[in-house]
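Proteins fold. Shown next:

***
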Amino acid sequence: MSNSKSKIPFWTFDRKNALNQVKSSFSGLSSQESSYRLDKFGPNTLKNDKKTQSDFLLFINQFKNPITLILLFAASLSFFLQDTTNSIIILLIILFSTILGFWQEKSAGDAVNELLNLIKVKTTVLRDEKKEEIFVEEVVMGDIVFLSAGDIIPADGLIIEEDELFIDEATFTGETFPVEKKIGVLDKATPLNKRINSVFMGSHVVSGTGTVLIISTGKNTELGNISEKLSSKIPLTDFEIGIKRFGALLMEITLIMVIFLFAVNVLLNKPFFDSLLFTLALAVGLTPQLLPAIISVNLAKGAKQMAKKKVIVKRLNSIENFGNMTVMCSDKTGTLTEGKVEVDNTLDYLGNNSEMVLKLAKINATLQQGFKNPIDNAISNIELEEFEEYVRVDEIPYDFIRKRLSLLVRFKSKKKINNNLNTNTNTNTNTNTNTNTNTNTNTNTNTNTNTNTNTNTNTNTN
């Protein structure tokens, strides 16, 4: 089996060669093999799971504030000038504001992680020769993944089955028009936007269904390559930029005053050491020792008030930006509404109430295997009599050209269909008998005529 860290040109393989390349089969992987590969190659994610290191870096980042650096310099000077009390007070103030900011941001980060764990995306794979749903992070190389409309592609893979499969690859190509995917073998030099036999992590299914053999996961995917190239530090907020500018200005003023006063003292023939101590003490006195604590306390208070309104503040310094916001655009579904739909009535094309429309809608919403939206769920929840007697035979998935989804269904019990036919036949027989009875009162000529008529009737029945 090839190492997942190597770049595999899987779009040049047919299905058999691709399965051999990743040591898999059309029956999928076993649970034991998938667990082994997950331990060997790691989870299917672009993130580094290094919580201890991230917490340490989060704590260190609290000291990057220019004002905090000035205070650290002032504490060092106080200690150098043997003013131990003042040095300890400054250090305590720094630690208080630093720990407060660190604790708030860590708590917010943990809360966000817990929320993300609640909304983890699942995908359907073939394990131990049967379908099962797993988290996207548990997908490994060699997995057989089933896709339908609305599904997110969990990793890079080769298409081994498809039915009118259209994928949105705007993340990679910038094109909003869905790409039709087909089974095939392509040249190694084929660019990414022309690889119609492949799917890529981060894209999603617009319509149709498909089965994919996973080749690359995590950072070895095309999305992982893009993520590494675009990886950069979190941009500074306007508040942080303002604090940095204020700190730089304070440092410049302090430095100018210290140099100027030291030079004046030297020109006035003051003792050199006394002049140095005086200017350094002045520098310590000019530093705003309580400013970091005041900023941290106020931002923490704002975060607490927002938490009461069910808003998690992950970065304290972002509160100032949020306060300066004049226009906020948000998707209303799930934000301003509950995202729940209920069926009120069903009408035909003439605007009249129609139970048949509701019945057909119920069949479509319940039996279709594509992406089910809230409207489908609302229709599926309606109870209808005798609905269980229908089963799905075939389906043409929804696509953006036809703008419809088509289903072929039949009665679940064929016996009922035969009973209906027998009932109709008996009815015709009774009708014919009545006709013959009435005819017997007539002449023989008329009887023959009626006999011919009965024969035609029986032919129509058959």
Notes: The longest strand covers residues 156-168. Strands lie at 122-127, 130-135, 144-147, 156-168, 179-180, 198-199, 204-216, 390-396, 406-411. The longest helix spans residues 84-118.
